[in-house]
Amino acid sequence: MPLIYRVIYEENGKPQVGDLGSRLGVRPEDIDVDADGFVYPGTGGMSVAPHWRVLPVSFLPKRMRDRVFAARRSNSYRVWKMGEGAFISEKLTEYLTLRVDPERPDEHGFVEPAFKMLWTEFQGHLAATQDRWEDGET
């Protein structure tokens, strides 16, 4: 499974689930949701990066200033990582896939549904990965 990174609000030592920015989930505006509530592969999803070093510095929590002087986000956020393989377009789970952004392949990707599903199901599959994320700030 590809190694991915994301800055997510921390809650009780885990990434917080939700459909707001910087949560473990996806905002409706970040993926095409059709009139019936379905989402599809190749249409957007939850943004991730191949390493914390390519995330915008404004996303990084202040505690990382020893490595990135301009880090300025609240320390309520954490850089999380999941996986261990190369940052390539590939399945993450039975229901989720990583699609590397063709416009920025060295710095951005989308966690997308692996097949057509309801947006609410997609959110549930993202939430189901909560225990697989670990500290990515090292």
Structural commentary:
The chain is mainly β. It has one domain (4-135). It is built from one helix and ten strands; from the N terminus they run E-E-E-E-E-E-E-E-E-H-E. It has one helix at residues 119-127; strands spanning 4-11, 14-15, 38-39, 46-48, 77-82, 90-91, 96-100, 109-113, 117-118, 134-135. Strands 2-1-5-10 form a four-stranded antiparallel sheet, with no helix packed on it. A hairpin with a 2-residue loop joins strand 1 and strand 2 (14-15). The protein is globular and about 45 Å long. The two termini are 20 Å apart.
Blueprint (SSEs and pairs):
Blueprint lengths: L3 E8 L2 E2 L22 E2 L6 E3 L28 E6 L7 E2 L4 E5 L8 E5 L3 E2 H9 L6 E2 L3
Antiparallel strand pairs: 1-2, 1-5, 3-9, 4-8, 5-10, 6-7, 7-8
Give a quick rundown of the structure.
By secondary structure, the protein is mainly β.
